Amino acid sequence: MTAKSAAAAARATVYGYPRQGRNRELKKAVEGYWQGRVGADALRSTAAGLRRSTWRQLADAGLHEVPTGDFSYYDHVLDTTVMVGAIPKRHRAAVDADALGGYFAMARGTQEVAPLEMTKWFDTNYHYLVPELGPGTVFTADSAKQVAELTEALALGLSARPVLVGPVTYLLLAKPAPGVPAGFEPLTLLEALLPVYAEVLADLRAAGAEWVQLDEPALVQDRTPAELQAAERCYRVLGGLTDRPKLLVASYFDRLGDALPVLAKAPVEGLALDFTGAAAANLDALAAVGGLPGKRLVAGVVDGRNVWINDLSKSLSTLGTLLGLADRVDVAASCSLLHVPLDASAERDVEPQIRRWLAFARQKTAEVVTLAEALARGTGSVTAELAANRADLASRAGSPITRDPAVRARAAAVTDADTRRSQPYAERSAAQRARLGLPLLPTTTIGSFPQTGGLRRARADLRAGRLGTGGYEERIEAEIQEVISFQETTGIDVLVHGEPERNDMVQYFAEQLTGCLATRHGWVQSYGTRYVRPPILAGDVSRPEPMTVRWTSYAQSLTERPVKGMLTGPVTMLAWSFVRDDQPLADTARQVALALRDEVADLEAAGTAVIQVDEPALRETLPLRAADRAAYLAWATEAFRLTTTGVRPDTQIHTHMCYAEFGDIVQAIDDLDADVISLEAARSHMQVARELAAHGYPREAGPGVYDIHSPRVPGADEAADLLRTGLKAIPAERLWVNPDCGLKTRGWPETRAALENLVAAARTVRSELPAS
Ligand SMILES: CN1c2c(nc(N)[nH]c2=O)NC[C@@H]1CNc1ccc(C(=O)N[C@@H](CCC(=O)N[C@@H](CCC(=O)N[C@@H](CCC(=O)O)C(=O)O)C(=O)O)C(=O)O)cc1
Ligand SMILES: N[C@@H](CCS)C(=O)O
Ligand SMILES: [Zn+2]
């Protein structure tokens, strides 16, 4: 095919769409089902209605091919586990008795059985359920969900393409099942898995699929030769099947690197590649392998993970180059639109001019359609769209919110000395011990206490004007009183105020920072039915007023014990927001760090002796390719130190991390130079304590002894055992006792019981320590 005919055939598509509906109908229906308020049939019918309306909207917007199978009640990796029959033994009976109930049992656990582990989906804030596999895993095909959803879309008269997690990515995301030796590599199960995919592909073909998409984002990470060989084998086998639809192998989130030649040569009919950000390197790499003669290329030129309008002219230039490299070029967003909110036009509180800079899922779909149209019919067919796009880009580039001279001058003046504590750790540690007078194995929590329905309703009432500011603040003060009094009674050593005033640990701060936009409806799925509204870091960032001092000081006024100030760190602020794409992340991080540094100074001036700066996203934002990591860690650790190092030696700086494995960032953790770090560790039986010890980590640490992701209350004996394990790695003078993470998703009864047990465990283990 010539470049001209490749252009004429250009079509628009996306790989996935937000699942929850305009008013979070799916969240409400699923939670209603869990609470017994919504029946299974009603839940299924809500879900089917949402899928229908999404497909209709996509088709009405001009999309030529809609995705199917991307919908999920909880998580698409869990759906894949069901599709390949890899149900863990402990869940088998529940799944056999009731497929839907069993599905949720795998996701959330029950009193009797633990759920699957949950972890980050690549470097996003979406979490998937980790497949558990072992040498004895027997795969069996269950294509029912995929076939049913394809059938629904085809019945609407649409051209539809099922989207599946590819076999290589599925296996690379899996872990050895409990009891299986840690050395077991799930990828060794590829030969057993391929016949199951073959069966699903045949079923989809029989149901009317012309194309099926197999997502292989794991191939954008550094892969060993053996893993690349497995990818080659996988697509040689699937490509060689006779009874199958055409195959589109998709990658996203970064460049394919060494996997590109492997996939380019594979006997499949199409590849979908990301051409945004670091993945733009795919363009030269594709030319270097001689393009994709005879294949369909789906070009992800619209950033599926950020919220800024596309530079349509720039994308058209990329697409123009690609036309010479494939038989047919289609246009798409770079990845599933699951990671962006639904519709920017719903954000009525955002100034209309600024709203025009924003593209959420609906607007990105329109951009994809415009680009495909321009490719197929020439730019003359989209003159108005291109002119409007140029004007909006110019309005953003020239806006005063993107350049605040005072913020820029301050950031430019930062010196290395601003990012260092004034005294070495040993001296600060002595000063802090003298000031705080804590026992050995001091107890603390990570910050949040239960975010009850009552608190959320109070905030909704405040917004709706049903509750005045005074009434709301009284409600928050009452909550803080309860949290402080509970901690005093329980005997916790370093208290927290409980964060009742925070809708979210990132959004709360962004709402108070200049240069950041908060959304009203911009929900994005974080895990299961839990959603976040990531703020938009749109301009230069500064802090007009203290953000937390009022509540920390109020809490401190209620007790003689130290109350920890509680802030979200600069790296996590960036990671869980939509960041500006017109300057390096390092520059934005430095601006946020300076704003937070002022908050730290104000907390200290108000008498706060312990300040925690949370960085749960430090590990998650680590670039997917090792070659990019050093540069990231340099600016990330500098931003944390810039936030925290302006304090007196006797002010104790804590940090906290969770939701990740930390083994490969221990040096970066050390580089933060925080006095104390609390880390998630309960499920891994204090593995991180051993990793810190192996590194020679010199400061204090609190590996968690209470898994707050589970409703299970750990007994005092169990917590004490974990502490004794911790003591084998970290000496008593440097070991803290705390839960894995904050308690906002837990209820009060379990929180009370678990923290009482935690304090009892600390007392028991203290009494076992040799007298000094
Ligand atoms: C630590 N985690 C976080 C991540 N990312 C963040 N940005 N923040 C995090 O804390 N990533 C990793 C993990 C993910 N974990 C979670 C845990 C819990 C949630 C969660 O509970 N989300 C809530 C929404 C939270 C929120 O924004 N609350 C607001 C608004 C609440 C609301 O919906 N109000 C209703 C009315 C309420 C009523 O009447 O009951 C409304 O406005 O209509 C608030 O409290 O004010 C969720 O519901 O999903 C997310 C990630
Ligand atoms: N301080 C926060 C940290 C969560 S990672 C909390 O306790 O919820
Ligand atoms: Zn945490």
UniProtKB/TrEMBL annotation:
Residues binding L-methionine: 446-448, 499, 614
Cofactor annotation remark: Binds 1 zinc ion per subunit.
Binding site for L-homocysteine: 446-448, 499, 614
Binding site for 5-methyltetrahydropteroyltri-L-glutamate: 24-27, 120, 576, 620
Pathway: Amino-acid biosynthesis; L-methionine biosynthesis via de novo pathway; L-methionine from L-homocysteine (MetE route): step 1/1
Pfam family, any one: Meth_synt_2
Signal peptide from the UniProt entry: none
Cell membrane as UniProt keyword: no
Residues that coordinate or bind Zn(2+): 656, 658, 680, 741
UniProt-listed InterPro entries: Cbl-indep_Met_Synth_N, Cobalamin-indep_Met_synthase, Met_Synth_C/arc, UROD/MetE-like_sf
Key word Transcription regulation present: no
Keywords, sorted A to Z: Amino-acid biosynthesis, Metal-binding, Methionine biosynthesis, Methyltransferase, Repeat, Transferase, Zinc
Biological role: Catalyzes the transfer of a methyl group from 5-methyltetrahydrofolate to homocysteine resulting in methionine formation.
Membership in a protein family: Belongs to the vitamin-B12 independent methionine synthase family.
NCBIfam families: met_syn_B12ind, PRK05222.1
HAMAP family tied to this protein: Meth_synth
Protein name as annotated: 5-methyltetrahydropteroyltriglutamate--homocysteine methyltransferase
Organism (species): Streptomyces hyderabadensis
Gene responsible for this protein: metE
